[in-house]
Design a protein that fits this description.
The complex is a heterodimer. By secondary structure, chain A is of the alpha+beta class. Chain A has four helices and three strands; from the N terminus they run αβααββα. Chain A has a single domain (12-92), classed as Winged helix-like DNA-binding domain superfamily/Winged helix DNA-binding domain (Arc Repressor Mutant, subunit A), CATH 1.10.10. Chain A has helices at 12-23, 29-36, 40-52, 75-92, and strands at 26-28, 56-63, 66-73. Chain A starts with 11 loop residues before the first helix and ends with a helix. Chain B is mostly helical. Chain B contains eight helices and one strand, in the order ααααβαααα. Classes of the chains: A alpha+beta, B mainly alpha. The interface between A and B is medium-sized, with 35 and 28 residues.
Chain lengths: 96, 224
């Protein structure tokens, strides 16, 4: 029996964000925007959804008088991502 | 990325994950300025010391004090690089600790060497006065190998962790020079130290800076 894929992660932009954040310790909003080629508005919405799910931590601060948003993956986010990849592998038959 | 929450097939998901992880990995680019600066300073200090011994003159100050002065620009370089970075990798944290630990080890080594000199110096002087010959044990000929041993470690680890071969080979070069320096005179030791600084930091630093400029140019072109 196949497990349902996590609906929070099974979306293009949110998965892209989580995939970046799993590889780094923390990333600025501008970095995520640059790497995903998303619009600021859309990215903000998706980041908020990931935050609400407890998958990422969002730190808002000021850097040289400009607002700066830093995103970090949480332990819960790491577990969800690992579970998601496992489910994908099961679907694709790459893992028994 | 599209505005809508596009649903992906399983294959597309895996491809996206791989692509994004690679993009994140590709975002680490060191400016190489710090490496260049330290490579140049250590090489200059060693060569000046060598010329002092070879030509028999003495500067009014110890040339190695330059390394203490270099800490000031290094602090500014570190702050500037940290400010410019939009992403912080796990490697960054480890590298910071490794190089900080290296700095502490160097200063501890200087302290140890000076402590040994303060004890051994009078003994060597007394030996020379009594026998009329220099002491058979010349501790100063073993100082360079000790420092080369230390130089190699963070350089080798950085080269391996960042998959930057010039630094990896630079670290190995330091260790090779360390072994050779055990059997050579102090003049050759200083030459080997200068060569190690050039191979381990100056040349990799120049290459890093070149790569960084290319990366910056690519980034600028993407935003046009």
């Amino acid at each position: 029996m196949f497990k349902d894929l996590d609906p929070i992660l099974h979306s293009q932009l949110r998965l892209a964000v989580i995939s970046i954040l799993i590889s780094v310790k923390e990333a600025e909003f501008t970095f995520l925007k640059e790497k995903t080629n998303a619009t600021a508005g859309n990215l903000s919405v998706q980041i908020q959804k990931l935050k609400d799910a407890g998958y990422i931590e969002v730190i808002k601060q000021f850097k040289e008088n400009y607002p700066q948003t830093i995103c970090k993956i949480t332990k819960q986010g790491v577990s969800a991502f690992e579970e998601y990849v496992k489910s994908l592998q099961t679907y694709l038959g790459t893992k028994n | 990325m599209e505005q809508q929450e596009k649903q992906l097939s399983e294959k597309e998901s895996l491809a996206l994950i791989t692509r994004m992880i690679n993009k994140a990995k590709d975002s680490y680019h060191d400016t190489g300025i710090g490496a260049m600066m330290w490579g140049a300073i250590i090489a200059i200090c060693s060569l000046v010391k060598l010329s002092e011994i070879h030509f028999g003159y003495k500067l009014p100050f110890d040339i190695y004090l330059l390394t203490l002065l270099a800490i000031i620009p290094q602090i500014f370089i570190t702050i500037k690089e940290k400010k410019e970075k939009k992403v912080r990798s796990y490697d960054d944290t480890y590298m910071d600790y490794i190089w900080l630990g290296f700095g502490i080890c160097i200063f501890l080594m200087i302290f140890i060497v000076n402590s040994i000199f303060s004890v051994w110096g009078p003994v060597a002087t007394e030996y020379r006065e009594l026998t009329g010959q220099p002491s058979p044990f010349r501790f100063n000929e073993f100082i360079s190998p000790l420092f080369l041993l230390l130089y190699g470690l963070p350089t080798f680890i950085t080269g391996a962790a960042c998959k930057f071969k010039p630094m990896l080979w630079g670290g190995i070069f330091c260790w090779v020079c360390c072994v050779i320096a055990i059997y050579t005179t102090i003049k050759v030791d200083l030459l080997l130290t200068a060569a190690s600084a050039i191979m381990a930091w100056l040349i990799p630093g120049i290459l890093m800076e070149k790569e960084y400029r290319i990366y910056k140019k690519e980034q600028a072109n993407q935003h046009v």
